[in-house]
DNA sequence: AATGAATGAGCCTTCATTCAT
DNA sequence: GATGAATGAAGGCTCATTCAT
């Protein structure tokens, strides 16, 4: 599957991928138009479907591609294996923000795919997301030093709270900067400050 | 705006609203079809556009209507003004769940509108959401008894954390029950249990 | 169903019907193109589907229309109620030929529909054909005078033979004149001669 | 023409032929897809067109091949040269049925080709059919013992009637079993019984 | 000889919106 | 106010055929 596409010259592959990602990131799955894509990528109608079969599979491919790319990006930043869990979390959040900013369209596409998954590829997409968290959550929570936790605090629940909270925070920023993503870069310092402040409260609560 | 529609007989208004809400809740903004709506509502094509101008303004109207309706529902449950903030939050969550269940389509539409806002009415929709939270957040956080808060905990930030967390939790459940909303009812007790457990950890952290 | 179309002005209806019939008669169901039809009929894409829903239903409508038209044509020639069965059959065959010639495209469409029925409207089309034969076969075989039949000849089987034979003959001519229908007119006398000769043999056999 | 194909290894030839026959028999000429064929036959797109030029010539080749195959099959059953003509005809019908059943796809393809010939190879296909009947009709009608014929019966016309009738009968069964060809096998005895009965009437008529 | 990537016209159908009545 | 016929661009997708390799 997708073999034909993978074998293309780097240049053409890039042209097509870029056109697809921009279109899907911009319009979301339903409104994205294969016509716009082929025009932008300067390829024929037939060949797009020759590569990807149909729109759904194309989208699935893009999600997969995006996740792989983001994964690779994450790997570049090797998290400190030791240290305080909240320090790690803060670091993790910063990395996330940086990557988001380096690949705004990929990020947009991924977010879109997460919240508006086309019904009949939902499970496949969810699997891919699960893989992603399976790889990175352990990195964060491994060797968790629970000795500092207050008595009566269930470590598992505590970490779930932290994760849910991080997600909500990310989303808050996504919504806030929707349509003016470029401004996010300028505000990164401010954001990180706020971010740390939040974490500080959580940390204070759990320790 | 919408005046002609508002002046309709209660019966016709209801028929149209119901048809619209079901369709938009079911298919989302993009895929919702005005054809389906007019067929279901038994009105003519022309009149729908006469009332609402275009699909976008129709959707905007529905969002407004839904928010008003949910607001009214919330007002029925007058939160205890005093008492522990976390007790209030738990109560708030329960009310939310109950209302969600009493108006599943309205809830669906509202969630959809929040996450997939059509670009050119985004700010208008976001305004409406802001009004909503402006009315209810104070209800929860008013007369906040911060005396129990641990020293060094910024009450405002603490409450923001709680709110963000609640939102994330809601979303977690939305995703979990996507496509099988009816099962949520049966699981309500389990959900409330988990909900309380989470809150307990947060509470423990802040007090 | 089809009401909207039926209410059109005679002129427009005719234009559309003509375009449809020519296209379907010419190309058959699968290859007939709605694009060609709308271009020929000078109507918009949307309106064709507004009238008929989809290609299949359009075809079904045309079959129905054609059968009605042919039926009406047949009725104009009131078969002599009495007289020898074979005389009636010969007359019937002549009428058939004449009508075929007066409405070559309708005939073509009908034949096509009979032998290449699109799978999922097959039963509906077959029903319509059954109605047709239900109306006219009795006209021929009513008050059948079997007194002249040779002993041992099962009248029902004999008539079945005659009918099957007539059909085969019709088909033989259809195939023979395929693509040069206009020449059939010139050959009608010759054909009728041959036709009578065949019937004569059958008659001779049965009496 | 077709030389390159004929020179292929038996195995590859068979693979291609089988794939083509199944596809054309199943879908008919128009809807048959060369894509399906090459996938099934495991050959490249280019080579199929290299062998056969285009879809039409491919189909023509298949018709030719099928007719040759059926011819060969017929030859295996050498009709009794003498004996009553109607006995021969009954035997002929039985052979036809048996062969049909032994090669259902070939039969289907041939029937389709007969009734839905693509316009611009129509005459070529009709020629091939003519060859077929030219070979076998004499087999049946040779040494026709007309002594038993009733006076006044033109033997040639009589035989034409019989042939036309046989064709009509075949077609009647084709239509009857359209879409449930496999059931024909179970009904073969019943069919042969009916077949004989019809012939009996004809025979009775002519003798 | 053999491959299969590439083409682009064509397919049927849906859509929000307009406008004469 | 109310109707619904009419528009035609756009949708995803398929197809036989070509051609560089």
Question: Care to describe what's here?
Answer:
4 copies of one chain form a homotetramer. Chain A is mostly helical and about 210 residues long. The first copy, chain A, has one domain (about 5-205): Tetracycline Repressor, domain 2 (Orthogonal Bundle). Helix content of chain A is about 80%, strand content about 0%. The first copy, chain A, is built from 10 helices and no strands. In chain A, helix 2 (about 10-30) crosses helix 7 (about 105-115) and helix 6 (about 85-100) crosses helix 7. The longest helix of chain A is centred in the C-terminal third of the chain and has 26 residues, at about 180-205. In chain A, about 25% of the residues are buried. Chains in contact: A-B, C-D. The interface between A and B is medium-sized, with 31 and 32 residues. The first copy, chain A, binds a DNA duplex (21 and 21 nucleotides) through helix 4.
In a few lines, what is going on in this structure?
The structure is a homotetramer of 207-residue chains. The first copy, chain A, is mostly helical and 207 residues long.
Give the SSE layout.
The structure is a homotetramer of 207-residue chains.
Chain A: H1 3-6, H2 10-31, H3 34-41, H4 45-52, H5 55-76, H6 85-102, H7 104-115, H8 122-141, H9 155-176, H10 181-206
Chain A binds a DNA duplex (21 and 21 nucleotides) through residues 4, 8, 33-35, 43-47, 49-51, 54-55.
């Amino acid at each position: 599957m997708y073999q034909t596409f993978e074998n293309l010259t780097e240049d053409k592959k890039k042209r097509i991928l870029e056109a697809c990602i921009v279109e899907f990131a911009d319009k979301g799955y339903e409104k994205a138009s294969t016509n716009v894509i082929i025009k932008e990528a300067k390829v024929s109608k037939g060949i797009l479907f020759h590569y990807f079969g149909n729109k759904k599979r194309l989208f699935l491919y893009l999600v997969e591609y995006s996740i792989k790319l983001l994964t690779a990006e994450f790997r570049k930043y090797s998290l400190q294996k030791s240290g305080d869990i909240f320090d790690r979390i803060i670091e993790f959040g910063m990395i996330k923000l940086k990557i988001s900013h380096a690949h705004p369209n990929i990020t947009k596409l991924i977010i879109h795919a997460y919240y508006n998954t086309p019904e009949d590829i939902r499970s496949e997409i969810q699997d891919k997301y699960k893989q992603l968290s399976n790889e990175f959550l352990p990195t964060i929570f491994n060797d968790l030093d629970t000795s500092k936790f207050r008595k009566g605090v269930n470590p598992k629940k505590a970490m779930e709270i932290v994760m849910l909270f991080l997600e909500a925070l990310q989303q808050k920023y996504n919504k806030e900067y929707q349509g003016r993503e470029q401004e996010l870069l300028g505000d990164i310092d401010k954001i990180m400050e706020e971010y740390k402040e939040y974490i500080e409260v959580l940390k204070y609560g759990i320790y």
